Amino acid sequence: xxxxxxxxxxxxxxxxxxxxxxxxxxxxxxxxxxxxxxxxxxxxxxxxxxxxxxxxxxxxxxxxxxxxxxxxxxxxxxxxxxxxxxxxxxxxxxxxxxxxxxxxxxxxxxxxxxxxxxxxxxxxxxxxxxxxxxxxxxxxxxxxxxxxxxxxxxxxxxxxxxxxxxxxxxxxxxxxxxxxxxxxxxxxxxxxxxxxxxxxxxxxxxxxxxxxxxxxxxxxxxxxxxxxxxxxxxxxxxxxxxxxxxxxxxxxxxxxxxxxxxxxxxxxxxxxxxxxxxxxxxxxxxxxxxxxxxxxxxxxxxxxxxxxxxxxxxxxxxxxxxxxxxxxxxxxxxxxxxxxxxxxxxxxxxxxxxxx
Amino acid sequence: xxxxxxxxxxxxxxxxxxxxxxxxxxxxxxxxxxxxxxxxxxxxxxxxxxxxxxxxxxxxxxxxxxxxxxxxxxxxxxxxxxxxxxxxxxxxxxxxxxxxxxxxxxxxxxxxxxxxxxxxxxxxxxxxxxxxxxxxxxxxxxxxxxxxxxxxxxxxxxxxxxxxxxxxxxxxxxxxxxxxxxxxxxxxxxxxxxxxxxxxxxxxxxxxxxxxxxxxxxxxxxxxxxxxxxxxxxxxxxxxxxxxxxxxxxxxxxxxxxxxxxxxxxxxxxxxxxxxxxxxxxxxxxxxxxxxxxxxxxxxxxxxxxxxxxxxxxxxxxxxxxxxxxxxxxxxxxxxxxxxxxxxxxxxxxxxxxxx
Lengths: 356, 356
What we know:
2 copies of one chain form a homodimer. By secondary structure, the first copy, chain A, is of the alpha/beta class. Chain A has one domain: Rossmann fold, CATH 3.40.50.1820. Chain A contains 13 helices and 10 strands. Chain A has an 8-stranded mixed sheet with strand order 3-4-6-5-7-8-9-10, sandwiched between helices. In chain A, β5, α6 (147-156) and β6 form a beta-alpha-beta unit. In chain A, α5 (86-93) packs parallel to α6, α6 crosses α13 (338-354) and α7 (175-188) packs across α8. The first copy, chain A, starts with a helix and ends with a helix. Chains A and B meet through α1, α2, β1, β2 and α4 of A and α1, α2, β1, β2 and α4 of B. β2 of chain A pairs antiparallel with β1 (30-32) of chain B.
């Protein structure tokens, strides 16, 4: 006898389990009807205001992406050669930001950004944060790659290395992982693994999980902590919030946009359920403590919650944070909002508690 | 320069911030269009199957509730005098379950259920769990009140006292709080506050928060831990997931059903923002460590996430768990499902870690 049975006994069975008359497709899909949605009044007033001033998300974004490799390369070139945000961020956040080249594979070099607080926190004197940017594996590179790294570095007072990893169409999977591992190997020359945190947002968080899986494959020691900000941890179109929050998440809006384009370009024919592409199909045993961030409107809420449960099931310490009314990665897109400040404060607290 | 700005620089501003042509109402509400929703493939296979076999939630449930006090009393009488689930649960879970009367206020007596594991866990020999049932403050009483208590008692191996608190229309707010405090005072005669956990699901979780607020008002010591299962912690219709998950959460379906009826009946004219009705408007300072449970389809996901953040902001240790594809309280309604078993295991782990 359960709660539902009690309701049934009360003649309330209609309350949850009736109306068989509603049309259903053969495969038990539901047809969720339209609804009016006001801005989230219990988000921060700043985020609520941003949303109130935002046009309704338009799901018809898929066709706006380039349809050829040449067009993608041109788009990336334009995106990554825009105004460099780093000098202003360095001044605002009291950081030193420098770029350097790292050899990752024979003749291949990539750019990394060294972000150093003018005042390193005493507990982080011997620590480093390895940062991986987001952008669906196809965007977010160039100097902008280090923008989130600057926020993390400033909030925690930690030296941060942000990797401008190679991306498709020039360099699809597994180039991004190879680059991350190459930079990690270099860090291991100067740091103990427990002194290194790794993480990022969206694809950067999924790539962090994938890199830790690859470290295990290679017999490398894993780092001391992971920051997984709304991780894209399953590139297939199967997480539930991809559908429940479609059209509500004003950043991603639909799987048939950046996610589908990014998954297709990055995987380059590889099965999307390969754990190095979609870490939720891998083994999280031996992973380090992980902090996870999402929002109630986030299309990757399910990826985040699934990763949290998978870590806990593997015996890993894992902290989940979900912000009211927040779409995908808005804490990173608008770091000055309370949701951004709270996120970076939580990351700081977490890595201080877990790095050696 | 932010990620969004980079996208704009890349000519992708259309991706997130365009289509002003879509009609918007004057108050910046969005009109979210209909969508097809498949069962959540990454919920447990058992839960996914239950959902696949469930009819589409019908939002037109409001009119099915009684419209007079007399009809409510008759419904409650029928619901609470149905088959008693406790003997079978006691046998299945190896528990001893007994009821007794407690004087709460002059001549007023209520029933409580003492649930004792045949084998109490060694670490819980001196502990008790004070359980408060759900049901929107209008249903869920009678012997069924102790069903969730039996699950908690068995999973953790802890003695549990479940309160069949008074409900409207006979006894609206603050009777439920008064009853809880009366039972808590009685427990304090035999237990240190740090040896007592308190909690429940839905209204039971909101009532747990309210009772702890009232303990602070009364100068009583607070218990050692709280279990807040998908807490109804804001009785107003303002949490975002009430709207984003409307029609998707197959248990609550709509605010205009049990929630509106329960809030109206229970508050009985009191302002819904009274913190003893809606604890999210109160002060969580000094609250004990709290574990919170929700699901991605839960209409009270926002209440849960807001309570989590409010606890953290008050310096309280708080653990948030969100299950993929789970509607409101399904772990409690179907405790044998993996989501139920995981929830009760998490509660057990949490109270073992936090009771003195």
